[in-house]
């Protein structure tokens, strides 16, 4: 009897251990975020830092979901730090968490540059000019709150003291310093989508910039000749009229290096950039089988990637407006 009782208890415990546990809502949401960010390793590392935090672990399900939603909106190391600070404050309301604001860094926006010192924005004379948080929100004295992510040309560096070292949580350079997206020869719809791509990339900590926009048919022919009939390396496989750049419907985006100069790193998060572009209804050159072009994005609703040449006569007869009208994306 006693042995049967022990055996029955053991069987029940074993069955309990073997029964899959239903994931909580926050666990489900965490996995969804991980799936979205599969091709952004730094963002995943930031997420690991958030969910592995002791204070985060003590939050209830609703609080964890709130933290995860904030991270999903702006998935980078600065946001993760801010949410860890929020968790500490939620558990101990009197806590003065340093993770809520950057220890150091800088912000350049609207033509003005501010130094950051423990969440304070200091002007060129070192005088307090506002505040800034690791969530990217900032408020200049006498003005409404803003976000560093709302201006793709803001230069922002959020730094945090970790032990004896100060590390960058976020470092973004201007995404269109040369005003390429202001080119009147670009269709407004590709501009709107490119700005959205850059905005999302910046939220994910990807420091990117526009490096090419509209090209005339003649310029395209000169580029095509390079490495073939003129000196230099081959840089394009499209003749004049065969590239969507020639119709103001393509731009090229690269990364910024640590100095804010264009860079095309082999180990850059190109795949995640491509996913963001596709989500905006754009075609990404990195998906091309024959001649992949990772910086390139283009917009041509109703036309295949290789059909640009079919619009050359329309362009010669009526210019860009005629092309855009034919495609149903005229102004």
Write structural notes for this entry.
It holds the Pfam family Peptidase_M15_4. Residues 7-25 have a biased composition (Polar residues). This protein is 37% helix and 18% strand. It has 331 residues and is of the alpha+beta class. It folds into three domains: 22-95; 101-172, no CATH class; 180-327, 2-Layer Sandwich (Muramoyl-pentapeptide Carboxypeptidase, domain 2), CATH 3.30.1380. The strands form two sheets. Strands 6-5-4-3-2-1-7-8 form an eight-stranded antiparallel sheet, covered by helices on one side. Strands 9, 10, 11, 12 and 13 form a five-stranded antiparallel sheet that branches. A hairpin with a 2-residue loop joins strand 1 (104-109) and strand 2. Helix 2 packs parallel to helix 5 (61-73) and helix 3 runs parallel beside helix 6 (77-91). The longest helix has 17 residues, at 2-18. It is globular and about 70 Å long.
Task: Count the beta strands.
Answer: 13
H/E series: HHHHHHEEEEEEEEHEHEEHEEH
**Rg, alpha carbons:** 25 Å
Number of domains: 3
Low-confidence stretches: 1-9
Gross morphology is globular
Strand order of the largest sheet: 6-5-4-3-2-1-7-8
**Proportion of β residues?**
15-25%
Chain-averaged pLDDT: 93
Counting H and I runs of at least 4 residues, what is the number of helices?
10
CATH arch. level architecture of the largest domain = 2-Layer Sandwich
